[in-house]
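R.M. (postdoc): so does anyone remember the format we settled on? I'll just put the structure tokens first.
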């Protein structure tokens, strides 16, 4: 399969730069941004031009980008599979992601979108991230989401740059297992049959000494994002030394998280000390990110809120009945 990796704007380019160290030989890497500093190399990159005043509006940025993206067609020519990596919620990335995904779809190329979701303290980005995600979901064959709130838990005492750097290493080392899937007996076709249904989240654990701890951590993070029992696919990715006995235990632990899902584990043995684990949870119709777009939750009413409203409505009518 001819795989092409596309990194969009600051976050997407940063992750792709790390990923290119492990996957660059087998896959073509394309960096796209309005900001020259995001592009680690000139070769195969698309530096989009815009005026300073265009940065005030997503709509203007899209207008500027649209004409310049025809070059992307040449860059992805001959690819049978494109992976787009993008941090959602900021203006430039959210301006570009739908345009890029539309273009890939129009060419009939299979695509996987890997979205970095904003931190909980980046509340102002949630709405845009939620809306963009909904749209992208319809364009791409699969969507894998990485919740930046996990970084907050994993690296609370690091700076933002340090946390990005540490997390991006974990993300890329585990993504590389998916992208080199055939080496580990897991095919991209299998991955796609899982991620093409509903949403998929990728939950990470920091390097741990014991496999059991890594699995426990990754499970508790996944549960904090989604209801695992509603998933229809679980894939555990492990990097490090795992014995057969441990593998059996892991499968037993994962099996009881739900009742009717496809379970896959794949292990990449390496000599590094410690174990890295990630969990790909797929086939989800609902994740916490659905709440980022309040329009998607219009039919979910807060009973407590309604009760208070009714009470205060009574209060108001009582007040209007008071004669003065
Ligand atoms: N995991 C991870 N998330 C990142 C990284 N860089 C940015 N993000 C997240 O991605 C989202 C978008 O951020 P950026 O990629 O910096 O935004 P942008 O698309 O360049 O947009 P502008 O701010 O307009 O330049 C935010 O929620 C960030 O928290 C990164 O290296 N790793
Ligand atoms: Mg940027």
């Amino acid at each position: 399969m001819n795989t092409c990796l596309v990194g969009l704007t600051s976050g997407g380019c940063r992750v792709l730069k790390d990923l290119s160290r492990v996957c660059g030989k087998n896959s073509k890497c394309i960096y796209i941004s309005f900001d020259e500093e995001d592009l680690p190399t000139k070769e195969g990159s698309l530096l989009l031009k815009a005026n300073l005043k265009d940065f005030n509006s997503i709509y203007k940025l899209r207008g500027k980008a649209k004409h310049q993206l025809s070059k992307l067609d040449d860059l992805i020519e001959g690819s049978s599979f494109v992976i787009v990596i993008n941090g959602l919620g900021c203006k430039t990335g959210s301006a570009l992601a739908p345009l890029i995904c539309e273009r890939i779809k129009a060419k009939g190329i299979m695509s996987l979108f890997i979205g970095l979701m904003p931190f909980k303290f980046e509340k102002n980005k949630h709405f845009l991230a939620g809306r963009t995600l909904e749209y992208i979901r319809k364009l791409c064959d699969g969507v894998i989401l990485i919740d930046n709130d996990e970084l907050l838990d994993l690296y609370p005492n690091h700076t933002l740059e340090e946390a990005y750097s540490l997390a991006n290493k974990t993300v890329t080392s585990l993504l590389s297992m998916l992208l080199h899937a055939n080496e580990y007996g897991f095919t991209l076709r299998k991955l796609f049959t899982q991620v093409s249904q509903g949403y998929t989240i990728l939950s990470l654990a920091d390097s741990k000494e014991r496999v059991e701890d890594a699995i426990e951590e990754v499970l508790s993070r996944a549960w904090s994002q989604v209801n695992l029992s509603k998933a229809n696919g679980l894939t555990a990715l492990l990097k490090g030394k795992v014995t057969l006995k441990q593998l059996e235990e892991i499968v037993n632990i994962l099996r009881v998280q739900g009742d009717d899902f496809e379970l896959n584990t794949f292990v990449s043995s390496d000599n590094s000390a410690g174990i890295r684990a990630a969990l790909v949870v797929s086939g989800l119709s609902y994740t916490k990110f659905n709440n980022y777009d309040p329009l998607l939750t219009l039919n979910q009413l807060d009973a407590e809120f309604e009760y208070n409203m009714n009470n205060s409505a009574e209060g108001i009518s009582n007040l209007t009945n008071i004669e003065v």
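R.M.: ...and that's the designed sequence above, right after the tokens. Also worth knowing: The pocket of guanosine-5'-triphosphate (ligand 1) is lined by residues 9-11, 14-15, 87-93, 116, 118-119, 122, 125, 148, 164, 167-168 (CB under 6 Å). The chain has one domain: 3-297.
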